[in-house]
Amino acid sequence: MKTLRLLSLLVMGGLPALASAIITVDGSYDSDYGAALAVQAVPTGFGDASPPGSVGGSELDAAYATIANDRLYLLFTGNQEPNGNKLDVFIDSVSGGENTLTSTPQYDFFNGSNWISQNMAGLTFDAGFGADYHLFTQWVSGTSPYQVSFVNRAGGGSAQVPGSEGYSPNASGLVAAGAIAAGEVGTNASGTALTQDLEFAINDNNAAGVSGSDGTGGAAVMTGMEFSIALADLGNPAPGSTILIAAMINNGDHNYLSNQILGPLPSGTGNLGGDGGGGFSGTLGGVNFNNFSGAQYIAVTVPEPAAWMLVPGAAALGLAMVRRRQK
Prior knowledge:
By secondary structure, this protein is mainly beta. The chain folds into two domains: 1-18 and 306-327, no CATH class; 23-304. The chain is 9% helix and 27% strand. It contains three helices and 15 strands. A hairpin with a 2-residue loop joins strand 2 and strand 3.
């Protein structure tokens, strides 16, 4: 009787169905994201991309995240300037990870210099955030491909870590969705960090949002940098667990942070640079997000399985009941 009652509730809409929405990764907002998880609070210190179609600056206006079909979808609305500046996204999805980045994992964009790990070493996240994975992108010029890399930092305990890299051509400010193929990132990568394609896209046509003098308006921006990553490639976080994501615009050498961080820095905060106060020191060792109010990350919860899937034979019996009611 309990099973029949459960199925009756399912048929009548009393229990949640499995998430079936598939977000198109095209650099544009989809209603399945819901409300923004963070909205920018400070003017951009890395240039304002305006008027429409301009690629003259980098800004992070708002952050969206959702989980569907065993994938994490991320959208950071705004712009990424095609001058080599980086979008750095750190993901805390499993236990462990690095609260303060170490220089032990050695990787970079194929050139083997390892200056990502060296220059970012010492960056400290908010308490409770432990970086497990690092997704980073660059766009060197308006005629070059948009480049995305994904690295499993493996807890920072080994110099050789898994990494993958991919490219996508761009046209009219829109970089078509692509997939990161198996490969290496730098001389110390040990092969692919992905078991499934990582989809990405950029729509850089935004001319709204924050400017160089106004930190408001971020919620109105609906285009930017978008990614889709399989949960299997994020350590298979358990249902009910929380994934934390920290996004930031960095310079080309990964050693001078802008003030375009999500979650946002407090109103009035300028570029962080390498020392946390806008100065250049050659590394990010002086940046400590605990020194700033608020959370410099967003959080999304891995959904629990739909209740009806936990009942043996529920799907088949439920379908039969629906058919019977339709006769």
